[in-house]
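Hi R.,

Quick one: here's the Tetraacyldisaccharide 4'-kinase sequence you asked about.
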Amino acid sequence: MAVSSASFLAQRLPRWWYGRGIAPALLPLAPLSWVFRSVVAARRRRFLADPATAGRLPVPVIVVGNLTVGGSGKTPVVLWLVERLRAAGWRPGVISRGYGAASDRPRAAQADDAAASGDEPALLARRSGAPVFVGRDRVAAGEALLQAHPDCNLIIADDGLQHYRLQRDVEIAVFDSRGAGNGHLLPLGPLREPLTRLAGCTAVVWNGAPESGAARAAAGLPQFAMRLQGASFRSLVDPAQRCGGEAFAGKRLYALAGIGDPQRFFRHLEALGLRFSARPFADHHAYCPDDLAFASDGVLLMTEKDAVKCASFYAPSGGAPAAQTLPGLPEAWALPVDADIAAAPGSPGLLDLILEKLNGRTPA
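And here's the predicted structure, written out as tokens:
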């Protein structure tokens, strides 16, 4: 019964948080939300007031995070930053919590092992070309990365806005079109910190149209619009094999997404002109082959983040793809996406803002 209740809440809470107003079912959680707010405020004051608790890495640190629970599009922002900063002469490394990773100790992320590294770090290691280290303690993860890669002269933290011990030079808050939901802190709402926290951020990136509550809180901050682009699918059996949506003409299509807002992926597929049956999963869902069986009579489309966890079902084994040895697995394709981040007309770009914040230092 406990497991069933927990599963029910996991499915219902986001709907209540991002619905209009405060759902009556949430009202009993209000006292817990007040307690949570007090704990968050006290913890932040402690780290800001006591320099002995600070963890300063010997290189500049950029934190990309969000105020809400779940994904909002941070990973594409990190990939965008790695590419742009590398082109500007910096040598970035990436650190991440590694949600669902097998161990909490700092270690290098494995591009082909999401179970050991976490789904987002595995994706970052695969896509970025930069060293990626994971660990609950971001300071320790950064130290381990720099020890293993002393040529790195910049650290980008994927998430970590609330990891106050890690000192940072730049903070970027990312929101998707759901914004701050009902504007309340956990568990009454989706916020991990109050919206007033944005006053300390360097910039806000909107992954979708700005939502009114979060937009009001971000007034006065540099703000940037992000659009995710991608129209070429990659086969899970043979990653070198690519195709466009037209290759699926006449086939029965299914789509799954285990990200913060699954509907964002489904809207992307619809914009490509595809029609499909959708199956949302919880963010960071740990897939097993049975989870894919619903699409056994057709073609399955998924996000790149989901693909790093499902790829092992299709990996070559004994010279034959797993799809030929595990019954019920559908043909599967992932859709890689890239961020396009734009400033308002006449305003400095995000990269320019970051380089200015880094004091215009020439990379060492």
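The chain has a mean pLDDT of 90.

Cheers,
M.
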